[in-house]
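hey so i finaly got around to running the thing on Ribosomal-protein-alanine acetyltransferase from Enterococcus caccae ATCC BAA-1240. pasting the sequence first so u can double check i didnt mess up the copy paste, my clipboard has been acting weird all day
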Amino acid sequence: MLKKFNLFHSILGIFFKNRPYDEKEVEISSEAYFVRAIKLDDIKDLLSIEREVYAGELPWTKTAFLMELQAAEPHLYLLIKKEEKTVGFIGCRIFGKDAHITNVAVLTHNQGKGIGSFLIREVLQFAKNNGCETVSLEVRISNKNAQRVYRQLGFVSNTIKPNYYTENKEDALEMILYLKEE
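ok and heres what it spat out for the 3d tokens, dont ask me to read them lol
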């Protein structure tokens, strides 16, 4: 999931400014949630969600989260809470005219309620605000449920990346959403 970004990407970060995310209460499927930017103190919750969602695996380590949250390049990392418990998160980083979703996870018992879709729409708005033309992500070939959600949001299949996931050598499907000018 963690993309290796080159020197060009680092240089681009100088031209963008991370705008603060205004925390807010939202209603999703008639339930109240609270969404805000991720802070360094939240990493423990993110790792816990990863362990549950990815059957004990940690696709991202504490160090990976720390690096992303402190990166100079434009990025957006959000978490969503229900009754003070973190139930999901998303992250993206801008690379040129593309906002790349680096990670998205929702606790299993909270899936299917529209939380992931809400978080992705927040990223789409961030991408538009930063002049992006596309939003991209990788998803496991075996994760048909996530692929269905992404397609419903307008993502299309692009390429297959062989052996993308290092822990089990599973292929990834790269998906892209082309942002329309309004």
